[in-house]
């Protein structure tokens, strides 16, 4: 069975638009999804990112959480016949507040996989409070529990395999330790790219305030340089057939261009060539 990626809908958040795209529509509030991903068809079920802990915790960033019963990670997994205890690995693109909030739903014999540099960044204070205390404390508990945590050293290794057909590479963008999760599907390579891309339309398709040809716009939330952010986005567009960010619909890529968008599965039917949030059910 070929590997497939199923989108898990963890709810939405409301935040200022300039958080998504640097300097864009400052003061305007936009509602965006928060997704995770379930990889099936391989040796074991693999989950990528676990969403945010609860609605209240988003207030620490001045954001509003919109998470309901159907968005609970147990219910999202159940739609695919999977229980938390069935998942062998939870892999993280990074550890921000809306990516690692439900790790404690999984038993300690589920191994959480993350880049070592990212855990270091989470306790450095550099992007506080985007790394909330209860999420990081849980990871420290895993650090002291046999086989509950696996560190990657992507800055040194370049890539590390999780299961056959799934591996991680350094993202070199967004946070100091962000990782891209690569999945080998029957229709080409798919990359779960975390928050390297927030919004395809404003950053890549109709990139705001850009005059240069094929020049991506950066997000309003990154720890590194603008050059690094732009380069990381260009690398994604050059190397993968599908891109799956956490806050926008997956995209099909051809010749470094977004040529279509997909619904809740990759590979899957392309539903449009124009990015729109409302392709996904609330």
Automatic annotation (TrEMBL):
**InterPro entries, sorted:** MBL_superfamily_lactonases, Metallo-B-lactamas, RibonucZ/Hydroxyglut_hydro
Going by the UniProt record, its keywords in alphabetical order are:
Hydrolase, Metal-binding, Zinc
- CDD domains cross-referenced by the UniProt entry: AHL_lactonase_MBL-fold
Q: Where is the Metallo-beta-lactamase domain?
A: 33-247
Where does the secretion signal sit in this chain?
Answer: none
- Out of the domains of life, which is the source? Bacteria
UniProt record similarity statement = Belongs to the metallo-beta-lactamase superfamily.
Name assigned to this protein: MBL fold metallo-hydrolase
From what organism does this protein derive?
A: Paralimibaculum aggregatum
């Amino acid at each position: 069975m070929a590997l497939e990626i199923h989108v898990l809908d963890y709810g939405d958040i409301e935040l200022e638009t300039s958080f998504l795209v640097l300097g864009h529509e400052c003061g305007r509030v936009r509602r965006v999804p928060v997704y995770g991903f379930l990889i099936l068809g391989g040796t074991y079920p693999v989950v990528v990112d676990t969403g945010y802990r609860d609605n209240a915790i988003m207030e620490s960033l001045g954001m509003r959480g919109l998470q309901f019963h159907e968005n609970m990670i147990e219910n999202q997994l159940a739609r695919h016949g999977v229980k938390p205890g069935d998942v062998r690995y939870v892999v993280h693109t990074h550890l921000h507040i809306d990516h690692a909030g439900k790790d404690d739903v999984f038993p300690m014999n589920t191994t959480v996989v993350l880049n070592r540099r990212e855990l270091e960044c989470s306790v450095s204070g550099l992007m506080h409070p985007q790394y909330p205390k209860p999420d990081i404390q849980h990871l420290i508990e895993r650090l002291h529990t046999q086989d509950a945590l696996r560190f990657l050293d992507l800055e040194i290794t370049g890539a590390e395999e999780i299961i056959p057909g799934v591996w991680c590479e350094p993202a070199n963008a967004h946070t100091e330790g962000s990782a891209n999760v690569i999945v080998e599907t029957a229709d080409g390579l798919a990359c779960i790219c975390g928050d390297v891309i927030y919004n395809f339309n404003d950053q890549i398709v109709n990139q705001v305030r850009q005059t240069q040809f094929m020049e991506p716009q950066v997000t309003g939330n990154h720890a590194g340089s603008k050059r690094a952010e732009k380069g990381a986005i260009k690398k994604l567009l050059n190397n993968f057939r599908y891109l799956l960010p956490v806050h926008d619909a997956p995209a099909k890529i051809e010749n470094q261009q977004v040529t279509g968008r997909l619904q809740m599965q990759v590979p899957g039917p392309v539903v449009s060539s124009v990015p729109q949030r409302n392709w996904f059910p609330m």
